[in-house]
Amino acid sequence: MSERRTTSSGPPALLPLKVRDLVLRLGGAAVLDGLSMDLQGAGCTVIMGPNGAGKSLLLKLLHGLIAPTSGHIRWGGQPPGAVTARQAMVFQKPVLLRRSVAANIDFVLKARGKDRACGAGLLDHVGLAHKTDQPARLLSGGEAQRLALARALATDPELMFLDEPTASLDPASVLAIERIVAQARDDGMRIVFVTHDVWQARRIADEVVFLHRGRVEEHARATDFFPEPRSAVARDYLNGRIVL
Ligand SMILES: Nc1ncnc2c1ncn2[C@@H]1O[C@H](COP(=O)(O)OP(=O)(O)OP(=O)(O)O)[C@@H](O)[C@H]1O
Fold it and tell me: What sections of the protein cross the membrane (predicted)?
């Protein structure tokens, strides 16, 4: 797998990511409990694991939105806060401005000092060209999520986090989102995608990080993980047995 944007004149490479002994205590409990992992190369990493395993909190820590209680996160040697602007995050529930579809994109392009003429192309890319002037609040769930994706892409991130972006969407909308993400990945963007959907994970993952009780239980290439997970909890999870 190759690295992206490692030129001698540009900023230091984002990857490898090194996470060591990460602990996050909330409400008196260690919700992340000594988590360590590395990410490198290109492609799509899917983070899976049962409810409450710590997936969403891990994304927020990696993106620099919250700070750990202890432990160490370094993106190419830099702390998360130093690289947040080089990354984008898409949440399960899209957070959109109460303005038109076009204005939602325009706002991001303007804030980033980017060419605002790109907006039309981005809306076309996510299949929303015909909704340009519509208020964003009138979009369906699938359309709103595609607009959230377009906004993330408008920042031209090197890496995109997606936290269960298709959890409440119909099958056609799920596939539409997956196609856009796969295209971004094929264009060289690093993807970190949280999902509960085993079939979705099988479609999109190059590698899987399986979390359980705030720790990494297994980290493997998708081609190894799905046919033969090493850990008993991952095996149970893939087989639909309850894992607590
Ligand atoms: N602000 C908070 N205060 C106390 N506990 C919290 C807080 N936020 C999250 N937690 C707890 O931390 C644990 C991990 O939460 P997280 O949202 O990361 O889980 P998850 O793996 O994304 O779960 P799910 O699959 O259900 O979305 C959960 O037990 C949750 O209840």
Answer: none
Q: What is the pLDDT of residues 55-89, one digit of tens each?
A: 999 999 999 999 999 999 999 999 999 999 999 99
Q: Is the pLDDT of residue 215 over 50?
A: yes
Q: Please state whether beta strands 207-212 and 44-48 pair in parallel, antiparallel, or not at all (unpaired).
A: parallel
Q: Is the CB of 53 under 6 A from ligand 1?
A: yes
Can you point out the beta strands (E) in the chain? 17-26, 29-39, 44-48, 70-75, 87-90, 159-163, 190-194, 207-212, 215-221
92 lines ligand 1 (CB under 6 A): no
Per-residue confidence (pLDDT) for residue 3, from 0 to 100: 43
50, 237 Cβ separation under 8 angstroms: yes
Mean pLDDT of 94-123: 92
Q: Which atom of ligand 1 is nearest to the CA of 53?
A: 21
Q: Tokens standing for 238?
A: 């893939």
- Tokens 């790109």 belong to residue: 118
Nearest residue to 2 (alpha-carbon basis) of 226, 219, 206, 210 = 206
Whole-number Å distance between alpha carbons of 207 and 46: 6
Q: Is 55 in the pocket of ligand 1 (CB under 6 A)?
A: yes
CA of 240 to the centre of ligand 1 (A): 21
Q: How far is the CA of 13 from the centre of ligand 1 (A)?
A: 30
Query: Measured from the CB, is residue 213 less than 6 Å from ligand 1?
Result: no
pLDDT at 178 over 80: yes
Q: Where are the domains of the chain?
A: 17-239
Residue 4 predicted with pLDDT over 70 = no
For the structural domain made of 17-239, what CATH number should be given?
Answer: 3.40.50.300
